[in-house]
Each structure stands twice: as structure tokens, then as C-alpha cells.
Amino acid sequence: MTTLIAIYHAKELLGRCDARCYDATSPDCDCVCGGRNHGIGLQRAAQNTLQDAAAWLDEQNAKDVAHRELYAKLARDLRKTAEQTLLPFAPSSDLPDD
Questions:
Q1: Is residue 14 classed as helix, strand or coil in its secondary structure?
Q2: 79-92 burial, b for 16+ CB within 10 Å, e for fewer?
Q3: 95, part of any domain
């Protein structure tokens, strides 16, 4: 099972998005993606995660004041990675459906 993103505080898992979400067939979703990757398949979910992971970290940052600096750095790094990875290719609206 591929985990697309997992957010930890110390050793405690705060949330993740994995095959239970992107391969889901039921309507319920309670993972860190907030439903964005729910039931859309691995390829599309991986693209979404590259695009949205920084925002998910920003949301976690707002909840966890003690680790705000760490989440902000991770979000900046993820945005940079997403820009370098996705910009040479088509915008997400041009990606084929799975």
C-alpha cells in the first residue's frame, strides 16, 4: 500500500493518505487529504498530493502551534518540489482521468 503523505508529531501519526483513500469505493473519508484524493486512483492522487501537500501542512500548522516553524519549512519545500515536478508538464486540469 503506497502512502502518499503522512504527517507525524514526534512518533505519533497525525494523518496520512494512502490506498484506503485513493482506492476507496465508499463515500466516507477521514484522511489528511480531506477527501481530495478519495477514490480517484493512485496516479491522480499522487498529482493532487504534489499540488496540495503544502496546503495540508499549512492546515496542520494552524492546529499545532508548537511545530509551526517545521510545518512552514516542509510546506515551502513541498511547494518547490511540486513546482519543479509539475510545471514542466501539463497543468492538473489537462491530466487524463484514471
A1: strand
A2: beebeeeeeeeeee
A3: no
User: Is 82 inside a domain boundary?
Assistant: yes
pLDDT beyond 70 at 96:
no
Write the DSSP assignment of 15-75 as a string of letters: EEE-HHHHT--SS---STTTTTTTTS-HHHHHHHHHHHHHHHHHHHHHH-GGGHHHHHHHH
What's residue 79's pLDDT? 77
Number of structural domains found in the chain: 1
- For residue range 63-90, list pLDDT tens digits in order: 766 677 777 777 788 777 777 665 454 4
User: Which pTM does this prediction carry?
Assistant: 0.58
Cβ–Cβ < 8 Å for 33, 52: yes
Residue 98 counted as domain residue: no
Residue 93 falls inside a structural domain: no
Residue scoring higher pLDDT (54 or 84)? 54
Range of the domain at 23: 5-87
